[in-house]
Amino acid sequence: MSHSGSPTTSVRPTKETPPARGKWYWAKTTLTIAFFILVPVLLFMLIKNIEWAEVAAALREYNVKTLLIGAGIALTSYLVFASYDLIGRQYTGHSLPVRQVLPLAFVCYAFTLNLTAWVGGIALRFRLYSRLGLDAPTITKILSLSLITNWLGYIILTGILFSFQMVELPDKVKIGSTALQLIGIVLLLLAATYFWACRFSKRRSFHFRDHEITLPDVKLAFAQAGLAMINWMLMGLLIYTLMPDKVTYQTVLGILLISSIAGVVTHIPAGLGVLEAIFITMLHHQLSKGSILAALIGYRILYFLMPFAIACIIYFIFEARAKKMLDTNQQHEAKQ
Question: What pLDDT is stored for residue 37 in this prediction?
Fold first, then answer.
């Protein structure tokens, strides 16, 4: 069932009507070349900033049960993360099967978290979706909706935590607690405005450059908020599981939300150093620096490095099987 405001999109029959080599063709070619140049460089930047001896020492501090629980939380979070693209599937009405969308989205989000959104969120998503037969406008809508979904959940959670002053701040930061509370209220009003627009706005479509963005219906908007909130809460739960018992879950979640926006602003791959600096600043009055770093190293392994290693394998499988999957999708379309 497709969204009423968006036309149904199916896999384009490339064999019968091959596309002209216009702007879209050259954009894909450029992105592909840039992707294969950027990935080795960014991988080197990622690896060289990791203290492997410290990683090994931190891992030895955790028992197997804790690490297994953490791995389960990380896996659940990625499944929820990948489900953002299922909302995009519903929104655009494209016909790619769920068994292709979920692993594709998993790869893109793992690359996004480790190698910035330009690689995973944009270049890789355009490459993989286009190889499965989707056109540029459809991919753009999926990308746009996933970004809105992620930050909608972020806005609501941050608004709740700040509005009700649920984050325990060190004394030197508490001076700005009233300002944070006002920010939280503004964020909740912003989220409420989005829901109102999805339900009542008469103008459903907006143009950004050459792309049209259509508001989803309010049910889809609530699904966006629900999935994104769950995902952010699972990320916070993973760090909380690895932290000592002296800190509350809502404080860990609040600091994660603060550090995430700081990571976006600085454009550092995986937020290396940003996450650690903010957590140490906010928790040094409760926990030792060593215990904080140990928890964050464990978090990086379970939530960044391990999924990224799995995503690399899935990516190469996708590259090898993309032509076969496209042919299968076209045959399915022809039968319908």
Answer: 60
